[in-house]
Amino acid sequence: MSAVDRFEPDPNVATEVPRAANPRPNRLESPILPADLSDEDVVGRWLAAKATGRGRLAPTTLAQYRTEAERLFWYARQVNTPISGWGLDEFSAYIGFLQAPAPWAIRKPGVRRGSPDWRPFLRPLSDRSAGQTQKIVTSLFDWLRDVGYLQLNPSTGLPKVGRREPEKQARFLSPDDTALLRETIAARPGAESGREARLTNARDLFAVDLFERTGLRTTEVVQCRMGHVRIEPVPQALRREFPDAPPFQWLLRVERGKGGKARWVPCDEISLSLQAYRIAFGLPPVPLPDEDLPLLLSVRRSRWGELKGIRSRTAIWKLVTGLCSEALAYARAHGRRVDADRFERASTHWLRHTYAKGLAQAVRDGLDASAALENMGHSDLRTFRRYVDDEPLRRALATQQARTRVTR
């Protein structure tokens, strides 16, 4: 079954969108694709290409691409114009339809896929979501043009929906916030509460350190193994360049980051935490190069008594959000004032942003921006700049201080 086999015609929907007069003026016979393929067959090949190779999409991203293909073909059936016959007007009409779909295109809550009443929309898309759809569908049409299936990309030259300067990143936990997370874990009952409680405390302390001090994405943590940690001796040449450097540097290998990109992440800051965590689980303090245990371990063993890891993004997300909820309850119980909204909304990615903020400060202090980009796994400096000067209150105080000096 192809990636788009589930796209079936929907004869039950009466469309209000005008039909195109010319069916396929943009269609070509591709020299590198089999003959007589339907549009659905060709897009199925595009999705299959996105799912293979070192640069393959993550499962969640691939699911979004499939959703966009599903919406695209559903709409094409309603307007009775195959996507290989689209021009600028058809593409523009589609993007506009996403933001203001006709009433017949909105499905009622609870209607399941496969029902005659199913529709691909629950509500109009926001500007941001419509812009993301435009980006994905434009990349599809780029591919169709590149493989010779279309003569031109019908989205060429159209303005990007929802394109605006992104706001500075405000979703992060401050050092005081992460200190509260650690204090909350330390305040739990210790070894006297049993083996599982002791292991949970050690694992959770390490999880906070891992996300805050390496900036890894949740999917990257799921994929990381203990053997991906390396301790590299610092050669004499680098010791001359960095005279205060330790004799050894801890590094963590991310085999497959976003876009399939591998990178090395500095992890000296978590070396002591990692060793204490491993000792608590009965492991040698330093991982072996070929050690295949996941980086984040479950406190429960397999049915054969072996250590096992936390292998899903959802489980790790629940671990960190649970810690944040626990810290909020702990602060309230001790009469501490904290930003409840932040702790209620925080997640693993907020700790990644915390790490990025520290890197942004390091860039201001002299760290090369390319090193910061590599640590984060970013390819665009504009993405990283969202973390610079992201605290309006800090900026306001700095401005006031500077202006006071001038006016004295």
Nutshell version of this structure?
The chain is mainly alpha-helical.
Description:
It is a single chain. The protein starts with about 40 loop residues before the first helix and ends with a helix. The protein is about 45% helix and about 5% strand. The protein has two domains: about 160 residues, no CATH class; about 230 residues, Intergrase catalytic core (hpI Integrase, Chain A). Helix 1 packs antiparallel against helix 2 and helix 6 runs antiparallel to helix 9. The chain is built from 15 helices and three strands. Strand 2 and strand 3 form a beta hairpin. With about 400 residues, the protein is mainly alpha-helical. A three-stranded antiparallel sheet has the order 1-2-3.
Distinctive features:
408 residues; mainly alpha; hpI Integrase, Chain A; 2 domains; three-stranded antiparallel β-sheet; globular; disordered N terminus
Fold blueprint:
Elements: H1 39-50, H2 59-79, H3 88-99, H4 127-146, H5 175-186, H6 195-214, H7 218-223, E1 229-233, H8 236-241, E2 248-254, E3 263-266, H9 271-280, H10 313-333, H11 340-345, H12 348-364, H13 369-376, H14 381-385, H15 392-407
Antiparallel strand pairs: 1-2, 2-3
Helix pairs in contact: 1-2, 5-6, 5-10, 6-9, 6-12
Region (Disordered): 1-32
Organism: Paraburkholderia aspalathi
InterPro entries: DNA_brk_join_enz (IPR011010), Integrase-like_cat_sf (IPR013762), Integrase_catalytic (IPR002104), Tyrosine_recombinase_XerCD (IPR050090)
